[in-house]
Design brief:
about 190 residues, alpha+beta, eight-stranded mixed sheet, about 30% helix
Length: about 190
């Protein structure tokens, strides 16, 4: 458990499902446009509960949550995925979302993630700014991605240089003349 400013940041644990699951569902259903069934939550929480983090106030009321996973992507890189992030409206702008996402990213990196992906609605400028501040890059636009008809941007965070270079078609044994130019941050 990590505290700061009267807040507690805790890793989800299945022993607290009866305490947390209803609050997680309520918070996410208030903030995100997608209607998720109980099975979607359980899919993530049962397999990757240790990649899910909660922000609680001093009375243990849930103020924010991030739900994530980590697994090989199509037989290739280890890909982390931030599936859901929500913070109560009245607590936004206090760094809670940033702290939750960083906690998830840190654990994914410890577990050898090559890259981390997520999607957010093209209209959610606050989320896009948050992810860009954390180093995520917009990788593609997904037209009519959500059930409400809204489009999304996929964002990628390339944790290891090998994940970025493989996306760009760079191979170690190719000569330098035939390599794509990497962006300055790589």
């Amino acid at each position: 458990m990590d505290s700061g400013g009267g807040l507690q940041y805790v890793q989800y644990h299945s022993s607290k499902e009866s305490t947390y699951l209803t609050a997680i569902r309520q918070l996410i259903s208030n903030d995100l446009s997608e209607p998720y069934s109980i099975y979607v939550y359980r899919y993530f929480l049962y397999q990757w509960g240790d990649l899910c983090f909660l922000a609680l106030d001093e009375y243990e009321n849930m103020l924010g949550v991030v739900i994530s996973k980590l697994e090989p992507h199509r037989g290739g890189p280890m890909r982390g995925y931030i599936a859901m992030l929500a913070v109560k409206k009245e607590h936004r702008g206090k760094g809670i979302a940033t702290k939750l996402v960083r906690m998830a990213i840190d654990v994914m990196i410890e577990r050898d993630a090559d890259e981390i992906a997520l999607e957010t609605e093209v209209t959610n400028t606050a989320a896009m700014k948050l992810y860009e501040r954390l180093g995520f890059l917009r990788s593609k636009r997904l037209h009519r991605y959500y059930l409400n008809g809204n489009s999304a941007f996929r964002f990628m965070l390339f944790v290891k240089e090998s994940a970025l270079t493989s996306r760009l078609g760079y191979h170690e044994d190719d000569d330098d003349e035939n390599q794509p130019e990497l962006p300055p941050s790589a």
